[in-house]
What does this fold into?
Amino acid sequence: MEYYLKCDQCGEVYKSSFEHQLCANCNSLLEVVYPQLPKAPNQKHTSFWDYENLLPNCNYHHYEVGGTKLIDAHNSENLTLKLEIENPTRSFKDRGSIVEIAKAKEYGYDKVVCASTGNMAYSIAYYAKLAGITSKIYVSKNANRDKIAEIRSTHDADIVRINGDFTKAQARAEAYARRNKIFLTGDYCYRKEGQKTMAYEIIHALPETTHIIAPIGNATLFTAIFKALKEMQAMRKITKLPKLIAVQSDKTAPVALAYKNRTRVRYVKPTTKADAIAVGYPTYGDHALEALRQTNGTCITVSDESMKKEQKRFFEEYGLIAELAAVAGIVAARRIKLRKSEKAVVIVTGGNV
Ligand SMILES: [Zn+2]
It folds into this structure.
């Protein structure tokens, strides 16, 4: 779809030919804006690419991605699980990486850079390799060693482990992109567009959804879901926004704290063992707060111990492997009192362990 970019802070507008994901004036986040949304699609949707007309214009290669299964949770009548572990690199990140890497290629870049706690690194390295471009990835000190070892052995990514957390890795990636004129990928506007498709898949399959429960790391997925819901509302595909429920580890809960104290999101030192959500200052944290307010949602914290127990239970119950962050939503769902008529969807975000 035709689009332009708009700075979140200073309001500067850029044409789609602008090759960056941060504002040239103030270095803030840009947002993809579609002057006109297409009519709501009516046919049954089964594939990520059925939503291509809701993504930024680009010459996409139609790799198999998304279209992940929704399964009824065992032992709960109104809980459905969205299995994002089915994506090619076993996490939801692939939906966004496909869009980001396609844009990098369109702009003529032969290298991309990003910061990661693990899953992003895997996904970016994978799609960069497919596109024939190289990737440099800054990973945090606490990034999952097994994930990084696998990326090193199967993809050609140049991985730099830094002595710091994700927030520091992100600053390094942004500085590297600026210095070397390399396309910056990660939790920015194009990724958000790709990740929107997940909410479209959920609502098309289960229009009766009243709650969507997702873990928060950098909060890009959470705000992508919110953006998709707002688009669907504008298209009159839905009348009421489902409640968005954010889940964080009680050891790393900047959004939950800000929500509780009615402040802006402030940095906390990430100490959770759930590496995929070990983010002390989420890029889209304040946007997530807005999504919580507008959907009358809430933010729930869960302990690392409860995620560990749930991970084991998930394996025994479904015969599937999910990482700690990916079962955070299932733990949180137990705490929400759902009425008989209500239907919650939990995003099982990743399975890289
Ligand atoms: Zn700006």
